[in-house]
Design a protein that fits this description.
Elements lengths: L39 H12 L5 E2 H6 L2 H13 L2 E7 L2 E7 L9 H5 L5 H12 L19 E3 L5 E3 L5 H12 L2 H10 L9 H7 L4 E4 L8 E4 L5 H13 L3 H4 L6
Antiparallel strand pairs: 1-3, 2-3, 4-5, 4-6, 6-7
Length: 254
């Protein structure tokens, strides 16, 4: 007589009521079930683990485990949540919010909300049929960009990591800023102010620098003077080309 196998893995799509399994169980030599298939609970749990006792998820965690993105989609849909991103330097965090403009929520606050059973049922059915969010869309092609200096007129000059001062000096030479730079440098002697070429470009000429001092990935835009319309337009396109709408929209002007 066939025996039913009991399994308490609620993250498997074969898990049924009373901990029964609805498929043939294959156990490998290491004791691992090879019949396991992810269900929506699996993706929910990825989000709960990433949130832990916080009300945000570090983007580093999502880069390490891209499946968290799928979990975020399901949680947002089934709990009717809003979404937001926050940035500090090259650090970026995502938050699940109480609606579009509400506060960021933690695990307890999310799970205390009423779940949308219609959406849950729809996504469970799709997942059981092998349909994941976004699988019907062609992935967008994105490109990485070089660091560099951006003039007030929107002219971009590439400047690799660790070479921003050398690039600033080259710009001053090519643009004929040398005489003005030396006069500015002399005026600031003994004031404690920085007097490098890069400081001159930013403070006097209104250039901004796209860079990352840590060299660990990500982009920072540093400017002393207010960005011009041409600079904002360039930066918007620059980050959109890399698929970073969140960063791009920081430079959008109506």
């Amino acid at each position: 007589m066939a025996r039913k196998v009991k399994c308490k893995n609620t993250e498997c799509k074969h898990h049924c009521k009373n901990d029964y399994c609805d498929t043939t169980v294959n156990i490998n030599s290491g004791g691992r079930c090879e019949s396991f298939e992810k269900n929506i609970v699996y993706y929910f749990h990825l989000v709960w683990e990433a949130l832990a006792d916080k009300n945000f998820i570090d983007m580093v965690e999502i880069i390490r485990n891209p499946e968290i993105k799928i979990g975020l989609f399901y949680v947002m849909e089934c709990f009717n949540l809003g979404f937001a991103e926050m940035e500090w330097g090259t650090c970026r965090m995502v938050m699940l919010k109480d609606g579009k403009d509400g506060k960021p929520l933690n695990y307890e606050e999310i799970t205390s909300r009423e779940i949308d059973t219609d959406k849950l049922r729809k996504h469970m059915e799709n997942l059981n049929n092998g349909i994941l969010p976004g699988t019907d869309k062609k992935p967008k092609e994105v490109e990485e960009k070089e660091f560099g200096w951006l003039s007030p007129t929107g002219e971009f000059i590439e400047s690799p990591f660790g070479e921003h001062e050398e690039s600033a000096e080259e710009i001053c030479e090519k643009k004929g800023f040398e005489t003005e730079y030396r006069a500015w440098r002399k005026e600031n002697l003994g004031t404690g102010e920085m007097r490098l070429y890069r400081d001159f470009l930013a403070q006097v000429k209104g250039y901004c620098l796209i860079h990352n001092p840590s060299g660990t990935g990500g982009y920072i835009v540093t400017n002393i003077k207010e960005l011009t319309k041409k600079q904002r337009e360039f930066l918007f396109d620059y980050f959109m080309d890399m698929g970073d709408r969140f960063k791009a929209e920081q430079f959008w002007e109506e």
